[in-house]
Amino acid sequence: MSYQMLDKKVLQSVKDVAHKLRIHSITSTQAAKSGHPTSCASLAEIMAVLFFQTMRLNLKHPRDPSSDRLVLSKGHAAPILYAAWAEAGLFPVEELRNLRKVDSDLEGHPTPRLNFIDVGTGSLGQGIAIAAGMAYVGKYLDKAEYRTYVIVGDGESAEGAVWESLHFAAQYSLDNLCVIFDINKMGPNDMAMEMEVYRERLDAFGFNTLTVDGHDIDELNKGFHNAANCKDKPTAILARTTKGKDFLAVEGCEELHGQPLGKKAEAAIQHLQFLISNPNVRLSPKKMGKCGRAPEVNITNIMLCVPPNYRLGDSVATRLAYGTALAKIAADNPRVIALDADTKNSTYADKMRNAFPERFIECFIAQQNLVGVAVGATCRRRTVAFVSTHATFFTRAYDQIRMGAISNTNVNFAGSHCGCSIGEDGPSQMGLEDIALFRSIPGSTVFYPTDAVSAERAVELAANTKGVCFIRTTYPSTRVIYNNDEVFAVGRAKIVRQKPSDEVLLIGAGVTLYECLEAAERLEEDCITARVLDPFTVKPLDVSLIVTHGRLCKGRVVVVEDHYQQGGLGEAVLSALADQRNFVVKHLYVPTVPRSGPAAVLLDMFGISSRSIYKATMCIMKK
Amino acid sequence: MSYQMLDKKVLQSVKDVAHKLRIHSITSTQAAKSGHPTSCASLAEIMAVLFFQTMRLNLKHPRDPSSDRLVLSKGHAAPILYAAWAEAGLFPVEELRNLRKVDSDLEGHPTPRLNFIDVGTGSLGQGIAIAAGMAYVGKYLDKAEYRTYVIVGDGESAEGAVWESLHFAAQYSLDNLCVIFDINKMGPNDMAMEMEVYRERLDAFGFNTLTVDGHDIDELNKGFHNAANCKDKPTAILARTTKGKDFLAVEGCEELHGQPLGKKAEAAIQHLQFLISNPNVRLSPKKMGKCGRAPEVNITNIMLCVPPNYRLGDSVATRLAYGTALAKIAADNPRVIALDADTKNSTYADKMRNAFPERFIECFIAQQNLVGVAVGATCRRRTVAFVSTHATFFTRAYDQIRMGAISNTNVNFAGSHCGCSIGEDGPSQMGLEDIALFRSIPGSTVFYPTDAVSAERAVELAANTKGVCFIRTTYPSTRVIYNNDEVFAVGRAKIVRQKPSDEVLLIGAGVTLYECLEAAERLEEDCITARVLDPFTVKPLDVSLIVTHGRLCKGRVVVVEDHYQQGGLGEAVLSALADQRNFVVKHLYVPTVPRSGPAAVLLDMFGISSRSIYKATMCIMKK
């Protein structure tokens, strides 16, 4: 489809709107006494063209699954994004003056507290992954016409996550994705990063790359038209812009980054008003077409298509049970998807790939993009995503997971290869801080299933639980201890061994639960009976069951985990008991960087074996 | 300097050594019953040429500051690295059979438990940053002739961290750095990643890019010669290789990734022996030259050149005191360096840049590379590095920091903008999990200075403390409460308010310490006297002081922090009291994702203000 230039009147109207957006960016940050108006100014024409010539929106339902998406990766330009929605008619422009106030959702950086925001941004370099996730779903699952736009700053293009995502987008031919680089050249990063360098890099990463004057309405409009008509390649629009553009006495002034204009505001606004030819200009966004809409989907009540099917005493790794359960819930619901970062053979996500290859997304060895794509793929309730890799490699994407919580994401994570029990591969491969990481995520649920039956139920529960879920799976095989019909629930622990005479409560999960059981056997030989508790979820923890049984066991608790001391199961138990007097807790954990060796030897060497539990219990019995 | 081809005899010897390295890779992984021999095989000629034609080494002191460096970013190829050092004569080749055994330091992935390893690798995509840090120091600080080599796998080149580091290396013209890509094309990543794509990408990222047959000794040797003679640009050697090269019946066989050859080992070894023309071949690495050596440096006993200079009651942000102290210790020792990721104006690292620009490294908005460069810069005790950015953005580099602990790094981190107290910028910018992150690092020290005096001393102590140090600094100004001559030590808390009648111990740090003091005032009006404790270091925590004073306060403790519940100061206190009966702890923390607003309003809204502390104390008084 060939491009037709805008007629002069329309062109002038869009220009006028751009200047109005500039004025709003000044006035809102003036009212807030903080913010980044000059970072907004460089985007004014880009926003005006996107909102009033390009994107197809539904103002009645801004998160309509069929409408186009926009992710503002450079989240500090929030004021102009808010201004664009206000000018489009979503809410009164007067509200823009509430920017950054505690009783307004127009926060300093965008969050989905606003009904027109899909994801929180503000930690730089994360927007493209999210947009790529949306685009992937649009192209391959929804098979719909909506397009995804993402605006990236030049400073943030130093983030490696950006290049992970560009690589991903090109590999999967996401031609429904358009990445706009706002190159206002103010960062410390500008030495060699001239336009030509960007162009070479984007070309080399497989993009349809267009260089435009980011303040020229017609060039921008043509660029978006070109992008929409380019097949099999995502488009990068490299927009050459000026920071503080058209702000009188401010344009191009680096020192004013991240500050309202203060005393210069009034003159700048007057100048902008002078540039506007029709102060009453009013444009509307395009509407969505009738065709190519996203299908209606239902992602509730997801179940294992068949229940767990093991025999008590079977030896099965929980990571294997994870893969099995994943394929089972995917059979139950066509919107369950799985993503992995070149570890599918060891996380057992390959069971999903084998069963439903079209719903498995290989994200290569790039964990930040992996997580971002999943967050994007779940937006607007399009999918239920399960992301797997080795537990410790989620540390690579901690920032993305943290931002996921701000985005109210429901992504589920599964981390295999936890703790010393992986053995010979050594410390770089051992997840020893993963519980700490996922516990720190607001609203998260942390599953730590001990056997295959509970692991399958963890997957099923995670699929239906809001917020970030994490399932910690174990490398070696462990004994099945629950019946196939055992009922599990979030926040409900299990007592797996007890006698009325119990004098100590042992708490373990995964490999350490078996160590607890073995320690209990040995203790009984010495006439000490121990109760054993399997928490199932570390967060929320079953506080009342722990308090009740801890009291029955004379306030003596031994908690043991294949994890570092900080932030894991042990500190979760201590938090649960914080406001209880008369408890004494002995916490066994991996105290230092482990090493390569056989799993059983390491568990003992680092003090979390049955022998260590036995000793700790003997010691605590005196208290 | 023009290149002269190797003479035939030398060429054959290097070839023979390469095959010997292959044999060792098979036999050691056979003995271990695990490992990645085929990933070693693709590297055999590269290793042979590096060790026996290119690198200048000191076998008596493998970490000689003047010798060349090699970082094996693809750490799973450890067996062939170990084999090369053994063949070079560092230790008997028989020891290679102890690979992965618990009593051997020849671990599954390299760690600096071995005297010839600088840093732990095995989490992919991290090696180039470390090598770039070494090269930066070599070129700009040591001004020495040593060169730095780093071997990267093709799979790991999907990691964004790789591209952050390539950008950095080119920006700083690190012509003493040579990055070798072992392109054995076995990952899921190989679709479009043909050699030409690599070449275009590396060219676009500013490298001197050479494509070679990675199994051709002469081409490799010529490549390294070219690299050594290229000025102002780092070199990338793109080596086209084959996985399992010259392993009979195994070469190019993807299924065998990460497995020993098993039954195929014997035939493969026989075939390799057949390929070796002189089984007794023995080569030695090049020695270091007499010129261009690295200077001797002393990085001990670093002190503030002048003591803190504040008045009690002054209002000074601890982040500002951080910058001041940094410049002061840099004045005391010429090996103190600072690194920042485009946040120097707000972390106040710019004070260092202004005073000693040649020791300030701007790392752009790329936190993974930031941390990796610092780890590399501190290797072989060349520098004392301070890395700063906003506290929450260290989540971006959690994996690098985690690996830093495995590398025994002494890098110091300073995170500004912690907690809700940053106010209007909103949750994406608030560090609310940074204490959890840094506490989880084995051997770490976590400073949380409350005022400017203690902040300056934290910087001084960190400079002299082994292991990872983290200094959490605060955005708003806080009141100076310590005299300039107050003595601080790691693990020593301060009682800042006490009376004999105290019935509750309040623990806070940073902004919450002031809230505790204010709450204590209000409580006293209600005839309840409270003791207030400032921990100074959250890790190690002053357990004995807390236990002693907690007991004196009837076992009642209120701990309050501008951080999420998990893994922070509160859980540290709970861990400290775990084995004490008769304590009751009320923990106040930020319970959910905060929002934009004035700092004081947010502290109250999220339950960590003096009002909340007052209420919590009234409640705990009943227990």
Could you outline the blueprint of secondary structure elements for this entry?
The structure is a homodimer of 623-residue chains.
Chain A: H1 8-32, H2 37-41, H3 44-54, E1 56-57, E2 69-72, H4 78-88, H5 127-141, E3 148-153, H6 160-171, E4 177-183, H7 195-204, E5 208-213, H8 217-229, E6 235-240, H9 265-275, E7 286-287, E8 315-316, H10 318-332, E9 336-340, H11 344-347, H12 350-355, E10 360-362, H13 367-378, E11 384-390, H14 398-406, E12 412-416, H15 434-439, E13 445-447, H16 452-463, E14 469-472, E15 478-479, E16 494-497, E17 504-507, H17 511-525, E18 530-534, E19 537-539, H18 543-552, E20 556-564, H19 569-576, E21 584-590, H20 599-605, H21 610-620
Parallel strand pairs in A: 1-7, 2-3, 3-4, 4-6, 5-6, 9-10, 9-11, 11-12, 12-14, 13-14, 17-18, 17-20, 20-21
Antiparallel strand pairs in A: 8-15, 13-19, 16-18
Helix pairs in contact in A: 1-3, 1-4, 1-9, 3-4, 3-8, 5-6, 5-13, 10-16, 13-14, 17-21
Pfam family, one (chains A, B): Transketolase_C
Protein name (chains A, B): transketolase
Family (chains A, B): Belongs to the transketolase family.
Defining traits:
Rossmann fold, 5-stranded parallel β-sheet, homodimer, 3 domains, 623 residues, 37% helix, 7-stranded mixed β-sheet
What's the short story on this structure?
Two copies of one chain form a homodimer. Chain A has 623 residues and is of the alpha/beta class.
